[in-house]
């Protein structure tokens, strides 16, 4: 797996993150990784609620512009509560839009991507959530995104997110979209921090 370094994370949060134990599961092997971590000045309960409030993503998220919970047939549900083994339609911008964004920010149609995923983890005890790409068989595209929250000290809530891309299609994704994906993870982390801290005021 080729590691992805993030200057954004290293410069702003390197001293903190270097002393923190990650709440993400161990990474799997893959072609490349997109990831970001950031310290949020807000209670973990508030951050967890915001992380799973997919309906609010268009208000702040420059990367995942729409997250819709669906059933196994892909039909969007009235109940948008994320649950394990429900499906997820994600409309993403790769690379992300320039923040700040809101629900009225127009997409860049040239950089819009749609993926269909299975929600694999929603764990309010460990504060972990994950979803796996299922549009293609794993032998072609193996990609699962994890997000986690923890409280490494009394000063902040630590947000971490990581996606490891493996299998054949990931070679093409790596060549064509890896920098944009990494930028998306970093922009989402920064805007998630801004959004949650705004809710905490």
TrEMBL record:
Signal peptide from the UniProt entry: 1-22
Task: List the top taxonomic levels of the source.
Answer: Eukaryota, Fungi, Dikarya, Basidiomycota, Agaricomycotina
- On whether Signal is a keyword of this UniProt record, the answer is yes
Protein name according to UniProt: Coenzyme Q-binding protein COQ10 START domain-containing protein
Concerning InterPro entries, the annotation shows: START-like_dom_sf (IPR023393)
Q: Which domain of life is it from?
A: Eukaryota
Entry keywords, A to Z: Signal
């Amino acid at each position: 797996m080729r590691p992805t370094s993030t200057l954004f994370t290293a410069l702003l949060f390197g001293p903190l993150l270097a002393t923190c134990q990650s709440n993400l599961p161990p990474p799997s092997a893959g072609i490349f990784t997109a990831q970001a971590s950031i310290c949020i000045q807000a209670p973990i309960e508030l951050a967890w609620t915001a992380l799973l409030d997919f309906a609010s993503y268009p208000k702040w998220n420059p990367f995942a512009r729409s997250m819709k919970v669906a059933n196994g047939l892909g039909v969007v549900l009235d109940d948008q509560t994320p649950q394990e083994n429900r499906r997820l339609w994600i409309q993403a911008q790769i690379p992300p839009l320039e923040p700040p964004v809101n629900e009225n920010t127009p997409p860049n149609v040239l950089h819009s991507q749609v993926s269909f995923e299975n929600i694999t983890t929603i764990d309010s005890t460990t504060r972990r959530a994950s979803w796996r790409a299922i549009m293609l068989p794993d032998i072609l595209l193996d990609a699962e995104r994890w997000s986690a929250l923890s409280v490494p000290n009394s000063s902040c809530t630590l947000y971490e997110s990581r996606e490891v891309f493996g299998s054949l299609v990931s070679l093409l994704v790596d060549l064509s979209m890896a920098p944009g994906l990494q930028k998306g993870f970093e922009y989402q982390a920064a805007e998630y921090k801004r959004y949650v801290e705004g809710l905490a005021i």
